[in-house]
């Protein structure tokens, strides 16, 4: 094979490889979009106590799971076939970690939807207003996280990383409110606990977003920032 | 380079590669051992309300985190340098997923230890007996999971996968017990909620063990069994 032929072949291979990376990125973003809709619908179902919508969310989770498994398979296939290094490898690792967190956000949606199906939640309507506001916050955070992921924007990822602390504060407020509720009316306890599990699931969505932001930073900066304080992360970037 | 020299070089490289794989396996098992001790001590701290031991567990978590980051780095380095395929690649993927779950079991230990520091838990001693029994169950499950991982034993992993359902049942029993407690004595609610968070953390340890068992099966059988029913898994193996 002449040198020109070799160069063409290697260009061809790298073109295919880029197309594969592009394809896998698109699939992760599609998975993110699906999870985002699941979260919106789960919160809608809970705040309007819409059993039909809740059922739809629960049944939709297998699609999220299926996407995780198939994207993960594709990541392994690409590593074995293309033997990527440096930033290509970091991209695939970031993707394979991201889908695990997206899948767990999917599980959180199921938990929220299940709370909507509990008959005893009905009596706790005023509490649902707080959850709704916290839920909207978490949905915005997920949307921006997917945005940072689509553009591989490390600065935005760092901003979002900070945002999670606000969601945690909101969650603590809700827990205090739920506690007061239960103490004032012990008969409400089982229903309030259902709301409490839903609030916890929403809070976990924020943690998962924070993880995904860390993978974006890892991809862009080539640095693992997990277990690092915000101040140290800012210094590094 | 003659053919004998090439063969020697390739033997040498594969010998180094095997040593690297062996080293990384040992490090995961060491991390598992550390997490196991953290869990035992966190449960001890909670059931005896030992603040000093609880503090020790909380401070020890950074070692678990550090092991996760360094093993993960080593996994990426090996993939980039050795370009492993087939079962070697599966081993590295299984390891990199396992350490993420071990790290989260570490977080669960911190949550249990923090409950031990809450002064208001003191009044809930009888409840702690139930948590102790559930905690012992979870500790055994973690120990056996690490055992299955050390021996890469897919059959044992499958058995353990079933075991988690029993832990879930125990957890549900504790939640019902906690609910009755709170309804009978509303002043106990804040303290009971602390115990409830600890119980939830113990229940999550079982879920993480189940995940690790799935990675062992993935390594041995080359099949991703996540989101698969127990019956289908048994058929496959």
Describe it for me?
Two copies of one chain form a homodimer. With 237 residues, chain A is an all-alpha fold. Chain A has one domain: Methane Monooxygenase Hydroxylase, Chain G, domain 1. Chain A contains seven helices and no strands. Chain A has helices spanning 3-48, 51-82, 86-117, 125-151, 154-184, 189-221, 230-236. The termini of chain A are far apart. Chain A binds chain B through residues 62, 65-66, 68-69, 72-73, 76, 79-80, 83-86, 89-90, 93, 97, 100, 175, 179, 182-183, 186-187, 189-190, 193, 224, 226-227, and chain B through 62, 65-66, 68-69, 72-73, 76, 79-80, 83-86, 89-90, 93, 97, 100, 175, 179, 182-183, 186-187, 189-190, 193, 224, 226-227.
Summarize the structure in short.
The first copy, chain A, has 237 residues and is mainly alpha-helical.
In terms of topology, how is this protein built?
Two copies of one chain form a homodimer.
Chain A: H1 3-48, H2 51-82, H3 86-117, H4 125-151, H5 154-184, H6 189-221, H7 230-236
What attributes does this structure have?
homodimer; 237 residues; mainly alpha; 7 helices; phosphate transport (chains A, B)
The radius of gyration of chain A is: 21 Å
Q: Strand count, sense and closure of the main sheet of chain A?
A: none
CATH architecture of chain A: Up-down Bundle
Which overall shape of chain A is indicated by the principal axes computed on the Cα atoms? Answer: elongated
This entry's quaternary arrangement is homodimer
Give the percentage of residues in beta strands of chain A.
under 5%
Looking at CATH, the homologous superfamily of chain A is: Phosphate transport system protein phou homolog 2, domain 2
The top level CATH class name of chain A: Mainly Alpha
Order of helices and strands of chain A: HHHHHHH
Structural class, from secondary structure content of chain A? mainly alpha
Query: What's the number of domains of chain A?
Result: 1
Total count of helical runs of at least 4 residues of chain A: 7
Helix content of chain A: over 70%
CATH fold type of chain A: Methane Monooxygenase Hydroxylase, Chain G, domain 1
Task: Please count the beta strands of chain A (DSSP E, at least 2 residues each).
Answer: 0
**Unreliable segments of 5+ consecutive residues of chain A:** none
The most extensive contact between chains is: A-B, 31 and 31 residues
Cα end-to-end separation of chain A: 45 Å
Q: What's the rounded overall pLDDT mean of chain A?
A: 91
């Amino acid at each position: 094979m002449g040198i020109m032929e070799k160069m063409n072949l290697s260009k061809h291979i790298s073109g295919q490889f880029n197309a594969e990376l592009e394809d896998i990125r698109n699939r992760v973003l599609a998975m993110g979009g699906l999870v985002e809709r699941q979260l919106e619908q789960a919160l809608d179902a809970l705040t309007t106590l819409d059993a039909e919508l809740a059922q739809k969310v629960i049944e939709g989770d297998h699609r999220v799971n299926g996407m995780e498994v198939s994207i993960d398979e594709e990541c392994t296939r690409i590593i074995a076939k293309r033997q990527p290094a440096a930033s290509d490898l970091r991209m695939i690792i970031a993707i394979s970690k991201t889908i695990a967190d997206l899948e767990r956000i999917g599980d959180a949606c199921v938990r929220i939807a299940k709370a909507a199906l509990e008959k005893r939640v009905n009596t706790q309507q005023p509490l649902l207003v707080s959850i709704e506001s916290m839920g909207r916050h978490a949905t915005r955070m997920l949307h921006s996280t997917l945005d940072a992921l689509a553009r591989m924007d490390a600065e935005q990822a760092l901003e979002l990383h900070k945002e999670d602390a606000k969601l945690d504060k909101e969650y603590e407020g809700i827990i205090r409110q739920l506690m007061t509720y239960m103490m004032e009316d012990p008969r409400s306890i089982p229903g309030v606990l259902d709301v409490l599990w839903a609030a916890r699931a929403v809070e976990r969505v924020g943690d998962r977003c924070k993880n995904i932001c860390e993978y974006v930073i890892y991809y862009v900066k080539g640095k693992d920032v997990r277990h690092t304080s915000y101040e140290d992360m800012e210094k590094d970037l």
